[in-house]
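> forwarded from #structure-qc
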């Protein structure tokens, strides 16, 4: 997954007790995540021993591409630069300060007419400067240019606020569970 504490993810587009129990009962390695589009109170009783809810509240969100944001991003703010590149079907955006320090990032994978946004993050020291909107705009424009007409993503409550200002809407709750110790 490329993230600390994230060895692997199971994402269930339709979760039921039998499927969740089968996956969680047969997965014993720590750092494996399960994500399902159900409320936490539904998922938690389905988990096998050794698993626990993690990551807090989440949301499945979607938007038509190209996105018509409610607040369009401005130019790259002074003191920052953004680079984007595509490799193996994944477009990445990276914002750094002019001296090279990390400020924000994200990625989007095109899968035909749809695209999946992942790992959008703005360093706390660089928040509230429009960098998240800038990254999202760059990613969704790149996916639309590659033929995607719809995007999906999983959002935290903080991320939800950003994504809603960039034209995304909540479709369902998204609950995460983790095998082993908490990833934080």
């Amino acid at each position: 997954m490329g993230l600390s504490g994230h060895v692997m993810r199971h994402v269930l587009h339709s979760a039921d007790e039998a499927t969740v129990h089968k996956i969680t009962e047969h997965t014993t390695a720590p750092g494996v995540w399960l994500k399902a589009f159900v409320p936490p109170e539904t998922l938690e009783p389905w988990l096998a021993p050794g698993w626990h809810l993690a990551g807090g509240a989440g949301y499945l969100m979607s938007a038509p591409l190209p996105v018509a944001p409610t607040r369009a991003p401005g130019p790259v703010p002074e003191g920052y630069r953004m680079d984007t590149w595509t490799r193996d079907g994944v477009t990445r955006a990276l914002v750094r300060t002019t001296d090279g320090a990390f400020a924000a990032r994200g990625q989007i994978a095109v899968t035909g007419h749809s695209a999946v946004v992942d790992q959008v993050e703005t360093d706390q020291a660089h928040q509230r400067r429009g960098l998240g909107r800038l990254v999202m705009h760059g990613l969704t424009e790149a996916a639309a240019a590659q033929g995607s007409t719809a995007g999906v993503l999983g959002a935290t409550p903080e991320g939800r606020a950003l994504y809603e200002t960039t034209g995304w809407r909540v479709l369902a709750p998204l609950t995460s569970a983790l095998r082993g110790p908490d990833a934080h």
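QC bot note: The two ends are 15 Å apart (CA to CA). The chain has a mean pLDDT of 90.
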